[in-house]
Specification:
The chain is α/β, with parallel strands linked by helices. The chain folds into 2 domains: about 90 residues, Urease, subunit C, domain 1, CATH 2.30.40.10; about 300 residues, Metal-dependent hydrolases (TIM Barrel), CATH 3.20.20.140. Helices cover about 30% and strands about 25% of the residues. The strands form 3 sheets. Strands 1, 2, 3, 4, 5, 15, 16 and 17 form an 8-stranded mixed sheet that branches. The two termini are about 15 Å apart. The structure holds zinc ion. The site of zinc ion (ZN) has 4 residues, from loops. InterPro entries: Amidohydro-rel, Metal-dep_hydrolase_composite, Metal_Hydrolase, Metallo-dep_Hydrolase.
Length: about 425
């Protein structure tokens, strides 16, 4: 379907505005010209030329905001090094296809947290001209030390002065935020449990970013990197795995209550990439008659630790700072499966209403878009989705997307006649 010049009214059995309020029964959302015009009762009169779509037993809610993804990575289990043998047009093609997959699962905004060269900004601008595509915020090249995690993107900066220069170069290119690799990650030769930058490096990045009006997001898998990033004033911590090095062995997960207290005091956002690190593989293995027991054991332990961290954060009152994101792109973390992170968060005991805020209004705020998307309220963009049934009763219903609306364009998958 193309862009509808006439007002469109979406009626559903229940509407979640994204604010954490109880569902509004039998309400209607009126959209026109790419924006939400009104939220009214089903019985209220509508403009004469309104096109009415009755979604029936569905939940209408704001489109999801994925605060952490890598659109230009193929999410097909290939390693980073193999992907970056590929030419730019291939990575842009991944980006277009991934954006469409994410849109169809209800994600209407994607914050791209790292792409090679200028591909992040190029993809964002390309998708801005496509009728049915999510809005993209691009970090461009993540800041990383020589040989560090994501170094192949070309954002290498070793000293505080180099970091400041790199931030200004990215700002000149038009990036939307700055991504800092504060600990190691899945790149060959990199260790997730170790810090990559000192506090001085991180402060240089944050200072330069602020001077250019840009927010910062820091990849923090190591516990110590999270502490340093909060102290440096980073706006959003990504992953937050609380990994600690163990001499001669695998790292352990050790929740750090002191860092969490600093996070709470600073009001830092936590972008919890729940399904990243192998949940797609774990689900696949669980469904096989002959699972690889070693892989299953490793992944069960990894996700048990991850849910344990989320539980502790909730117990410590951090629920109000948490954003649920995917980290789709690297390894096996596929696009179009946003619901998996919601299900994992609910499994950790995060109440459904909070999980949904963490994926809509709060995620939009964390990305600096709180005034334009993430809520069903007049004046916001018409970023909407409908899922079958009562989403507040069961967040896994987010897998059953019936309709997505973005920029005045309906992407329907199962609209009742
Ligand atoms: Zn990432």
């Amino acid at each position: 379907m193309g862009t509808a010049p006439r007002p469109l009214a979406l009626r559903a059995a229940r509407i979640l505005t994204g604010d954490g309020e109880p569902a509004r029964p039998d309400a209607v959302v009126l959209v026109r010209g790419g924006a939400i015009e009104a939220v009214c009762a089903a019985a209220d009169p509508l403009p004469d030329d309104t096109v009415v779509l009755d979604l029936g037993d569905a939940t209408l809610l704001p489109g999801f905001v994925d605060a952490h993804a890598h659109l230009t990575l193929p999410a097909d289990r290939r390693g980073y090094e193999a992907v970056h043998e590929l030419p730019d047009p291939d990575l842009l093609a991944f980006g277009r296809a991934n954006a469409e997959r994410h849109l169809r699962c209800g994600v209407t905004t994607v914050r791209d947290n790292g792409a090679r060269g200028t591909l992040g900004v190029r993809l964002r601008d390309l998708l801005a001209g496509v009728p049915a595509a999510p809005r993209v915020l691009a970090a461009g090249r993540p800041l990383t030390p020589p040989g560090g995690h994501f170094h192949f993107c070309g954002g290498t900066a070793g000293t505080p002065a180099e970091i400041r220069d790199a931030v200004h170069r990215l700002a000149d290119e038009g990036v939307d935020h700055i991504k800092i690799i504060a600990s190691g990650g899945g790149t060959a030769g990199s260790r997730p449990e170790e810090c990559t930058y000192s506090g001085e490096h991180l402060r240089a990045a944050v200072g330069a970013a602020r001077a250019r009006g840009l927010r910062t997001a820091a990849h923090c898998r190591a516990a110590e990197s999270a502490r340093q990033a909060v102290a440096a004033g980073v706006d959003c911590l990504e992953h937050l795995d609380f990994l600690r090095p163990v001499a001669g062995g695998d790292p352990t997960v050790e929740y750090d209550a002191e860092t969490v207290r600093m996070i709470r005091d600073a009001g830092t956002y936590l972008s919890m990439t729940m399904q990243a690190g192998g949940y797609d593989t774990l689900l696949d293995q669980r469904g096989r008659p002959d699972p690889d027991e070693r892989v299953v054991a490793r992944l069960e332990r990894y996700f048990r630790d991850k849910l344990g961290v989320l539980r502790r954060l909730l117990d410590d009152g951090l629920g109000e700072r948490i954003v649920i994101s995917t980290d789709a792109g690297p390894a096996d973390t596929r696009f179009g499966r946003f619901h998996l992170g919601l299900a994992l968060a609910a499994e950790a005991g995060y109440p459904a209403a909070d999980v949904l805020r963490a994926a809509t209004s709060r995620a939009a705020e964390a990305c600096g878009l709180g005034a334009s998307t993430g809520r069903i309220t007049p004046g916001h963009a018409d970023d909407l989705e409908a899922v079958g049934g009562d989403l507040l009763a069961d967040v896994t219903r987010a897998a059953d997307v019936r309709l997505v609306l973005a920029r005045g364009t309906v992407v329907g998958t199962g609209i009742p006649a």
